[in-house]
Specification:
CATH superfamily: Hotdog Thioesterase
Strand content: 35-45%
CATH topology: Thiol Ester Dehydrase, Chain A
CATH class: Alpha Beta
Helix content: 10-25%
Strand order of the largest sheet: 1-2-4-5-6-3
Structural class: alpha+beta
Shape: globular
Number of domains: 1
Oligomer: single chain
CATH architecture: Roll
Length: about 150
């Protein structure tokens, strides 16, 4: 997998990568489920940038479980395309957080897909829980920069 690192400001983080051959079908188009992996990486890096790493959350006894996912494919990403995934927090509550995503061609800026994921906060026994106060204070929602 290509190394990724989040950059960003204004409540949006961006990861960049190039589409690997293994992520495509015989036509050279990215297989639809690969976008979900990109969203997961982008969300992980966003949390690392604004609050704390997943590892640190787990050490603190917090687990995040995806409860909803929506994705809208707009254009095909293809083998060797440079892409970026912009991520932000749409809403946050004590027990739930919703992220927004824009997957874009990194050179042309064309919007390839938009998505949203909602995650519940669980404890180590997989029971509904709450974000620790210090984490909750760092999770700041912003208006969607693109129409999802």
């Amino acid at each position: 997998m290509v190394q990724t690192q989040a950059t960003g400001d204004g409540g949006i983080t961006t990861i960049r990568r190039r589409v690997d051959y293994s992520e495509t079908d015989q036509q050279g188009v990215v297989y639809h489920a690969r976008y979900l992996v990109w969203l997961d990486v982008a969300r992980t890096e966003h949390l690392r940038a604004v609050a704390m790493s997943y590892r640190d959350l787990e050490t603190a006894g917090v687990r995040l479980m995806v409860s909803e996912l929506t994705i809208r494919y707009r254009r095909s990403a293809r083998y060797d395309d440079p892409i970026r995934v912009r991520t932000w927090i749409r809403t946050v509550e004590t027990r739930r957080v919703t992220f927004g995503y824009a997957v874009e061609h990194d050179e042309s800026g064309l919007l390839l897909a938009t998505a949203s994921t909602a995650l519940f906060v669980l404890d180590t026994a997989q029971r509904l829980s709450r974000f620790p106060d210090d984490v909750l204070a760092r999770l700041r929602p912003i208006p969607d920069p693109v129409r999802l």
